[in-house]
Amino acid sequence: MAQTEVLPEIEREEQTDSRSELQPTWLVICWNDPVNLMTYVMHVFQKVFGWNRETAEHHMLEVHREGKSVLVRTTMEKAEHYVHQLQNYTLNATMERES
Amino acid sequence: MKLHHATTDSFVFQLNAQEKELFLEMLQLYPLVPAQHHRLTKSPDAHSDENQRLLEESLAEHRAEKKQMVNALLAAPERFQKHARHFLFEVKATEIDFLLQVLNDVRVGSWLALGEPDPGQPPEMTPENFRHAIAMEVCGAFESLLLAALGQSESPDWADEP
User: Fold this and answer.
1) What pLDDT band is residue A5 in, cutting at 50, 70 and 90?
2) Interface predicted TM-score (ipTM)
3) pLDDT digits (tens, 9 = 90+) for B1-56
């Protein structure tokens, strides 16, 4: 697989009201495993987050090389939504509170 | 199996009789990943039990919908049009994602049943393990074909063999 040097920023979703600014931030993390195909992981990232191929490939390679990738920083509700979607595709994803 | 042709809203795959049987056998195995496999978070917090329950409910709902779609496909042999030496199977673009999810569930579920082996450490080959190992590899092969049709990768070498 061709390797790219595109290094996109980790998505930080906009928070518009002052209340949400006080809420803890959650990280949606995808963890490496030896079973999900790299091309499948890229496909899922594109479907769930609407990313282009380069961004999806960057995060997939980060999962593969580093063991995990922080996909988004967001509110608890949105993080739950994304984890539900990723696990629906049988990816190894969790949400963790940002320390 | 290989991509025969694609239109704006569908893909037509060409399969021989053995590939068709194998493809349907893989779909019949769905679902294989245990309901409790997925965890919402690795760090327990005050709301995690309730949120974990909601996750499992949500996944169970999706699993039931997909099982229904699998059953509908299995009950529609006309989806595979018989030609002289092969079958043509038309998949709507909207169905590709569903098939990928189903095949990947069987692939991951087979890997779990094998004891989550690393690629360099194959499990002991008992008759039961052999069945799971075959399902894992076959599902991966079909997934690669579908992903290639979507343009995610090159078509696998074996796909063009007669």
Assistant:
1) very low
2) 0.90
3) 999 999 989 999 999 999 999 999 999 999 999 988 888 998 877 567 888 888 88
Judge: A95–B41 Cβ closer than 8 Å, yes or no. Answer: yes
Q: Is A48 on the interface with B (CB under 8 A)?
A: no
Q: Is B119 in CB contact (< 8 Å) with chain A?
A: yes
Three-state DSSP state, A2: coil
Give the C-alpha separation, B66 to B71, whole Å.
Answer: 9
* A29, A59, A78, A83, B87 from A9: Cα distances, Å: 15, 10, 19, 20, 46
**CA B10 to each of CA B65, B96, B150: distance values in angstroms, whole numbers, following the listed order:** 21, 9, 11
Closest-CA residue of chain B to A28: B41
Q: Which of B33, B39, B104 lies nearest to residue A40, judging by beta carbons?
A: B104
Of residues B74, B75, B83, the one with CA closest to residue B14: B83
Which residue's structure tokens are 């920023």? A9
